[in-house]
Amino acid sequence: MVDRTAISRKLIPDMIQTAKTTEPAWMRTILLGIALLFLLCFLVLPLAAVFTEALRRGFGAYLASFRDAAAMSAIRLTLLAAGIAVPANLVFGLAASWGIARFKFPGRNLLVTLIDLPFAVSPVISGLIYVLLFGMQGALGPWLAQHNIQIIFAVPGIVLATVFVTFPFVARELIPLMQEQGSEEEEAALLLGASGWQTFWRVTLPNIKWGLLYGVILCNARAMGEFGAVSVVSGHIRGKTNTVPLHVEILYNEYNFVGAFAVASLLALLALLTLVIKSALEWKIRAEAALQVEEAA
Amino acid sequence: MDRRRFLYAASALPFSLIGCGSSGNSGGQAALRNVSYDPTRELYQEINQAFGRRWQAAGNPAVMVEQSHGGSAKQARAVIDGLEADVVTLALAYDIDAIAERSKFLPANWQQRLPNNSCPFTSTIVFLVRKGNPKNIRDWEDLAKPETAVITPHPKTSGGARWNYLAAWGYASRKYGGDESKSREFVSALYKNVPVLDSGARGSTTTFAQRKLGDILIGWENEAYLARKEFAADGFEIVVPPVSIKAEPPVALVDHIAGKRGTRKVAEAYLRFMYTPEGQEIGARHHYRLSVPEVAERHHADFQPVELFTVDGMFGGWKAAHQQHFRDGGLFDQIYQPGT
Fold first, then answer.
1. Considering the domain boundaries, does residue B159 fall inside one?
2. B220: closest CA among B317, B305, B287?
3. Based on the domain organization, do B212 and B201 belong to the same domain?
4. Distance between CA atoms of B300 and B108, rounded to whole angstroms?
């Protein structure tokens, strides 16, 4: 607590802008203009294109794209994969970041590195790992086949690949947050006689809740949008192992551009929603931090 | 507060989702799985429905055919890696050979088990050109001329594109009486005219039709008809060269998987259905050339005449063609150097 207020006090004078520390007006206009132009070309235009293409044949055709059985099954599968991957990585992320932020143990740095692995590895490789492991030519494939267990080219493989690529999001969000907060409050709670669970629910969780939600939102967006890793393990069985992004590719290849962009617009809407929630959370986190600074002062 | 109840609810969510996921899959109905290459979606959609009706009319329980589509070699790889296919319907025999060889899921002589080299439908390689044929493309010769842009997918990643490549090579080989260096020169000149090699046939069509790149799209005849219909407003024209290759996409029962899944009987009936007049008529509607003479006779006028050579006759089969042309460091690699 004390440390943080000290840091905040040090930072505040820098935030007060003076004529000397700001750039001239023309410079600001140019820099801002470049940034906005870049945004327009690379974000706004493609996004607008998705919706124009999707609505090219009217709103009826747009809606019809979702009534298709294959589209429905793709949406269901995507929800299922995200519905498993997000809670799994939530639990893992909490446990890992708590362990890493609160304790020093041999292999701690290795664990941090391993958590980052899915960020470093290309998604296609992540998918291939599972094919090499569970495929018929792989290490476990023949045994699985003998026992009639399908992992890849079936739903479990898609879930596994999704869990893998979304692995770091929650942990990466929480580790710095928990490290910054320190363990004083938890220690105080324990000294005052709170049990482990009580400490977790009343002290740890309230402190990290917005950061946690932020991680979950990003994790969910990636889980629903993942293409590469899932494409490798999917087998592309229509109505069975196609997720929403894979279904978009299929529709596009069938010259069904309205359908492809309609389904893609679903992912775009998800992205927009994610951004809105993300900004709201960021605002919330900042507001709360400011409040704490005030209280401490 | 209600934290605990919330936690229980949250942890139960994925399991309830699994529940509805799996109940959706196993709806009592027998399922047959056809692992196919990319541009056969429209064909099999119709075949599957018609076969389902016939099969049920013959007093059998309802059957649902599940489709999986992708690049031919990629699909073969997936079957080898464990994608359970009762039947495979791929772009070239080489890919099914690979399954037979690597996984032993079907006997090596699989191609002799069904009529016409196990190809119920065949096609040939033709050109799609822009409205009015402004570059006056008539024959393979015109594709190697300077100032001509040709669109064709990459033969290493697309099964369909190997047929394109071999068609060009076969044409040259016939023209120059089998002189390899002259054939090589011709095919080199042709591939120098290719501004972009997409990874799949549909990608190339989109490049040509939507992105408006190139003067000629080389492709399967049935795909050319489909593209002409899909992009009717552009008024593309189909040019059938005097000589081309007979494209033979074979079908096969994957004995091991069908045996394991108990689908052998329905899978065999499914493949046989493609050779019935009804199945053949569906093929004709999708602009495939037919293998059953009686039905083919009826559609004789639908197809422009073309003199066809085969992979077996011209190249000594797929194994030899692959060894000579498509292996790493083979003739295609020598001919096509990106950026030159």
1. yes
2. B287
3. yes
4. 34
Yes or no: say if A170 and A216 are a contact pair by the CB < 8 Å rule. Answer: yes
Contacts of A36 (CB under 8 A, 6+ apart): none
ipTM: 0.78
The answer to whether residue B292 is domain-embedded is: no
Shortest CA distance to B81 belongs to which of A132, A157, A124, A229?
A: A132
Return the residue in A80, A204, A252 with the most chain B beta carbons within 10 A, the one to mutate for interface testing: A80
The total number of structural domains in chain B stands at: 2
Instruction: Show the domain range for B129.
Output: 122-247+305-335
Exposure letters B168-203 (e unless 16+ CB within 10 A, then b): bbbbbbebeeeeeeebbebbbbbbbbbebbbebbbb
B150-151 and B216-220 strand pairing: parallel
Residues β-bridged to residue B245: B309
Would you state the structure tokens that stand for residue A139, as one six-digit string? 């290490």
Domain CATH number, residue B79? 3.40.190.10
- Residue B187 sits in the same domain as residue B215: yes
Q: Is the distance from CB of A258 to CB of A61 less than 8 angstroms?
A: yes
CB contact under 8 A, B80 and A255: no
Give yes or no for residue B3 having a pLDDT over 70: no
Instruction: Name the token pair of B236.
Output: 């593309």
Average pLDDT, chain A: 86
Question: Which of B13, B38, B66 has the CB atom closest to A253's CB atom?
Answer: B38
Does residue B97 sit within a domain?
yes
At B271 the pLDDT is 97
pLDDT average, residue stretch A21-43:
87
Say what the pTM is: 0.82
pLDDT tens for residues B288-312?
A: 999 999 999 999 999 999 999 999 9
Q: Check whether residue B226 and residue B323 sit in a common domain.
A: yes
CA distances from B234 to A57, A98, A243, B109, B208 (A): 18, 61, 33, 45, 11
A139: closest chain B residue by CA:
B81
Put simply, the answer to whether B66 touches A134 (Cβ < 8 Å) is no
pLDDT at B160: 87
Interface A:B, Cβ pairs < 8 A: 82
